[in-house]
Amino acid sequence: MQISATTQTSTNRYSSWFLIVTAVFITCLITANITAVKLVEVFGMVLPAAVIIFPISYIFGDVLTEVYGYRQARRVIWLGFFCNLLAVVIIWVAGLLPPAGIWDGQPAYERILGYTPRILVASFLAYLVGEFVNSFVLARLKIATRGRWLWMRTISSTLIGQGLDSLVFITLAFWGAIPAAGLLSAIIAQWLFKSVYEIVATPFTYAVVNTLKRREGTDVYDHDTRFNPFLVND
After folding, report:
1. Residue 176 Ramachandran class (φ > 0 left, ψ -120 to 50 alpha, else beta)
2. Which of 82, 124, 205, 218 is the most buried (most CB within 10 A)?
3. What is the largest CA-CA distance in the chain?
4. Contacts 24+ apart (CB under 8 A), 142-148
5. Is the whole-model pTM more than 0.85?
């Protein structure tokens, strides 16, 4: 069953399933932003701890685009951006408040939850570039393949989206701070880990997508969609 994007967005009512997927997507995003401060070693690669949760946001981004279409995914991506921005602002303001005399955790708070402007800018830009490219590629491939080969479409969109995400973040955040060879190594390590994560999670993606399509009775194809990422109300 092919449903156009215009049909999908003809009502302002959202199902409980759509809200659940949106909540999981945004929770993964904000959690990744907080846990990224910790570095872990996985198979000899040094990675931020956020790699255990951030790829899940891409999986649910795939689910949003595959089931509800690019237009709805675009709204959720921007919603996630502003929710993440709000969380960062609140954490920053809380850090500025004078600590109580009986509390000695201020240095720890600032070390774990403090963000440098450069890291923040790199993180936000990488998120927008990666998520929008991922959603765009998946939506276009769905039309090109007539909805077949979901595994190929999700993996392909993730390879491109996660690749750009890692490239933008690592380059903007650490250019000049570490050697070029180190930058390249970090970009490749993050990209490979996130991509393998997506491949391993493919059966889960299939299960969620098939369940939602059956329960929602919808399967959106973006034939008439304008893919400008800034047309939130389109």
Report:
1. left
2. 205
3. 64
4. 142/65, 142/66, 142/221, 142/222, 143/221, 143/222, 143/223, 147/2, 147/219, 147/221
5. yes
